[in-house]
Please model this.
Amino acid sequence: MRHEDAVEKDEKQRQLDQHRVDLKGTRLTTDQGVLIDDTDNSLQAGERGPTLLEDFHFREKIMRFDHERIPERVVHARGSGAYGQFRVYESLTEYTVADFLCDPSLVTPVFVRFSTVAGSRGSADTVRDVRGFATKFYTRQGNYDLVGNNMPVFPIQDGIKFLDFVHAVKPEPHNEIPQAQSAHDTLWDFVQCQPETLHFVMWLMSDRAIPRSFRMMQGFGVHTFRLVNAEGRATFVKFHWTPVLGTHSLVWDEVLRVQGNDPDFNRRDLWDAIERGAFPEWELGLQIVPESDEHAFDFDLLDPTKIIPEEIVPVRPVGRMTLNRNPENFFAETEQVAFCTANVVPGIDFTNDPLLQARNFSYFDTQLIRLGGPNFAQIPVNQPVAPVHNDNRDGYHQRMIHQSGTSYSINSISGGCPMSGVVSGDFSGVFQHYQERVDGRKIRKRSPSFEDHYSQATLFWNSMSFWEKRHIVNAFLFELGHVERRNIKEKVVGHLVHIDHELATQVALGLGMPVPAGGPANHGKASPALSQANSARKTIATRKIAILVTDATDAGALTPVKEALEGQGAICELIGPHEGSAASLAVDRQLTATNSVLYDAVLLADGGLLAEDGPAVHFVREAFKHGKAIAALPGGSALLQAARLPGTQGVIGPDASGGAFVQAFADAIKVHRHYDRDVAMFSA
Ligand code: HDE
Model:
């Protein structure tokens, strides 16, 4: 039984059920429903003769194959989705009329798609990139799409620059190299020409760009939006998703190896967690700013390259989202899902952020080419659970059979239907645009309040722990190390001087450039909420532990430890010298068919045999290099010694036993990664 069968179906599931096609026990037909006797041999004039044009089954099959592809998304092509549910903790009627935010008894179905941005559909999951975090709420008042990212800022301030940015980060036009990488000349040329990118670039060079799991990523709406209440009063709002498992990343060296070992690392992780019933969860949080405070900050709320530091406006947790169901068909659901920032419901409205305004046009437009016509909202995954009644008609792939003899408004023939949503002057449940006062000349000019490109980049740098700073410097060195033009690197370092002199110095030294002359003084402000060093949660739930075993493993010593770890929600996989069983234990993977980078921690239980085994020693040393918790039962002590680890942080030897051993190991895993191990080991 799949896990979702255990829970009561929500409205969206019941709607999707009507579109399910179950082939069990069926017989083969054409698309026209004609039964077919043979789909393996085309119709020929004689056994060795030419194929006949009248073979309609052959022609239909080939035609359908030729047309299987639709254009991949121009950005965010690589993605993975899941269904789930959202529930608000307490009513937010003070701020909004959106009923999914006002009624704590209401369970709102959702579909979420996570993605990378630059790579094509078949690219690896674990590249250095922003991750998309797009949520479609199927509310009773219509679909609301919160199309966010795992970073709270964007590289550009005005949507008219999006084409330029995307062309710069995508593979270069002459040779289509590199795939899904920002480490090349055109991206860094764009950065040096466009200093508004710099705050975003700091995030991109940080560990946020290489998440351990979609389940361990924050999400941000990025723009400032508006909530509007029943009195028509608006409040500015920023949306945050906070993962219940904490925000965690891979380490760069690990990323490079994961790509070869499992290009579907993040996709598989999400899928497996849901299949296992370990449903990923996020809290929705709001930063709420009264309209009267619009100009109270030293940045512009409409500027999407800025955050509101949480220390200035706290994030208020308002609800929880649980992803509990995998799609049944990747193409039908995850590929065809169509998000649009303009999909809002009563009580949620836009601001004049020029990036948001551009997006409201773009997403709508992109679906026309991607999904082949204007009826994409009728595709099951996109269909609202709220009823749809209007005079929109026809177009490619129309599936509705409208009964009315009219398709215009105002009419008298159909009794005026569909009529206005306002009944007897009652506007409840009706979308009303917020009546913002607008007054201005038509100009192509950026507001001076958008001019500061460095202060928040500095804030981000100042907020990082020592190991996060080290990772950022190394990321700059990797990226700029792949840039061929020296002048581009020099210009980038020139910008870094304005962020922080120490950062610029370290990057310059690594690139063999003179240490730059002192720039402006660092303002010294920090926002601790930005550091992932502060995000570890006290759990080992869903952490993957590799247990190295052999035929000499003491199963009696291992089993209670394994059961205790699984009891805390960890996932243990036994890795042995061969498939089948070892020491009466079932081996999940053969050692050479897996790699330490696919696990969060390692338990050595091999009985001494692996101490002579090169791949096993490499497995342990590599896990150490990547900061992972390592523990050895008495049988694993020889392997632990053979690994000659250059440090002891997060390494649990066989001296402890029983509950103390399990607890020490679990505590080491909860830390996520022991970044304070020998600095030299992290130099790549
Ligand atoms: Fe997007 N973006 N975007 N974007 N974006 C698309 O829409 C675009 C921006 C984001 O899983 C496209 O359906 C413009 C910010 C996500 O299906 C396209 C601008 C943020 C996804 C598009 C932006 C995002 C997209 C491509 C600047 C974070 C994946 C396919 C004005 C807040 C959604 C599609 C999914 C996808 C345009 C800026 C996030 C071309 C023009 C800012 C998560 O319409």
Notes: Residues 354-370 form the longest helix (17 residues). Residues 1-5 have pLDDT under 50 and may be disordered. The pocket of HDE is lined by residues 73-76, 79, 113, 115, 132, 134, 147-149, 154, 159, 162, 222, 304, 337, 339, 355, 358-359, 362-363, 366 (CB under 6 Å). The CA atoms of residues 579 and 605 lie 17 Å apart.
